[in-house]
Amino acid sequence: MNIQRRGNGHSSKSSTGRNGDERSDDAAAGRPTREVGQTRTINLALQGGGAHGAFTWGVLDRLLADERIVIEGISGTSAGAINGAMVAYGMMEGGRQGARELLDRFWAQIGEAARFSPLQPSWIDRMFGTGNLDFSPAYLAFDMMSRLMSPYQYNPFDHNPLRDVLHNVIDFDRLHKCREVKLYASATNIRTGKIKVFGPEEITADALLASACLPLLFRAVEIGGEHYWDGGFMGNPPIFPLLYNCQATDMVLVAVNPIRTDRVPTTAREILDRMNDISFNSTLMREMRAVAFVSELVGEHLMSRPGHLRKINFHMIQAEEEMGRLGASSKFNTDTTFLLSLRDIGRRTADAWLAANFDLVGVKTSIDLQHLFF
User: Fold this and answer.
1) E-assigned strands of the chain?
2) pLDDT tens digit sequence for 192-251
3) I need a surface site. Which of 41, 125, 258, 264 has the fewest CB within 10 A?
4) 3-class SS of residue 345
5) Is 297 exposed, middle or buried (0-12, 13-18, 19+ CB in 10 A)?
6) Beta strand pairing status for 69-77 and 40-46?
7) One-character DSSP codes across 40-73
8) pTM
């Protein structure tokens, strides 16, 4: 996988991005930036979304390059949880640069594994350049098969290439000793229908696989006698672990699934894509409404016992327009070129967010909560 090389220089000349946007060479090349005396501590809530997690890879890479940003805790679901594990383990082993290199290594191995996957974009998909697999014969065949057969039938040996990749890049026994970043991953308990949050000392390869277990694609993951599916059904991502277990007053949500759309879908594929977005945002919407409501009451001193509560500043990093063009089928597209394009979108989006909102971190909420979640 052709990962962009990281420079060792410290110049900060301006350059033009792929879409003509002016940005610094430090941001473009991913070199660290810092202004002495200015640091902000944040918690990260990372959404899941299959291959779209490469967008979050780019966001994290840019945040880690800025030494003004200190990450206390990460709560993630599916690809968000896996990205979070890469950051936590990488920080433990090699600091910020170690985390960035581990993210590169993980996604490089995902792209390499995709070379042997039948789920490849067709020449028509590549011609349109959307990243979708809407004209891929293998994807269309799999989509039909998954409606007639379960993974217990077509995948009797429970093969999951993600398991090997995770064990290749993370020593989970060492991860349990990580103190640099508090990591939380969510999954859905099939039997009870409740959310399960795996804490810092519970994160294993199976926990991450459970968090990313799409029930039509993989067999349920058994952990401690319970069986789990993708965490996105009950929390994408869950916010409460960061509120209960971290001290930072700023929460940054890295959103992969577009919340809004400017047009009504009319084709069958568009309808399915929008249903997918709404479904995987629904739990986040409910939780954000509750948290924002309580935070507002605390800020206005309307709670009778606010001593153990604190006002939370909310922020969001999203590329709603660019990610909104991607269909649900593109979440299965792990082609290297597509992953790198998403990484670049994530980098640019985080770079723009830092330029516009860094001074608001630690001060106030930078998004319109009423408009987004109420």
Assistant:
1) 14-16, 22-24, 40-46, 69-77, 182-189, 195-198, 221-223, 226-230, 250-254, 313-317
2) 999 999 999 999 999 999 999 988 889 999 999 999 999 988 888 999 999 899 999 999
3) 264
4) helix
5) middle
6) parallel
7) EEEEEEE---GGGHHHHHHHHHHHHHBTTEEEEE
8) 0.84
